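Appendix B, record 7
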Amino acid sequence: MKKKAFYTEISYFLGLIIMAFAAAFTEKADFGMSMVVAPAYIIHLKVSQYLPWFSFGVSEYFFQGLLIILTAVIVRKFKLSYLFSFVTAVLYGTVLDCAMSIIAPLPDESFVLRCVWFITGTVCCSFAVSLFFHTYLSPEAYELIVKEISQKFNFNINKVKTAFDFLSVVLSIILSFSFFGFGVFEGVKLGTILCATINGFLISRFTRLLEHFFEFKNRFSIEKYFK
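Structure tokens (predicted):
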């Protein structure tokens, strides 16, 4: 079977949109956010009590901006791709707020509906990540910091990702207890653990499926600016 061409630039923007809706559906379900976005979500919950304009999307690119700065400090270098990564964060945060507004009217009174929204969010998140795997455009800070640290210190990228996910959970718990009281879990719930358990499997399946039907190609010759 001849594979169809799929431009990596389209993969980037499609992944960005799907990822934003994935986060919005997961928030709608209220079973817990994914590990990496939980800190930004918890910060949003607290700060928005005093600054209503501090939306989930704004919190995302605020937190990712801090991660990009941390990345530069750790590797002792600032690349142009880091700036593009922040642009990605801003685009993602903007689309996320739009997705939250679109999904807000959907019903969420019953447990079954919440399960539907959670499954939708989890599947969309995994599919979006698999799309991001097939683009040269700068990823979000969550992927950037893992990639840069593993390359700088010659660490296994899977181990770095596991460590980053673990630290994200720890940070989320600390933030939740600090902001809302000891024993109060905001953002980190059973769904967070479930998502962490099956995400890798779903991402690999979607990646195989995409590569079975499509051949990913660059439409523009600008990849060198994102390295």
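Remarks on this record: The chain has eight helices and two strands. The chain has a mean pLDDT of 86.
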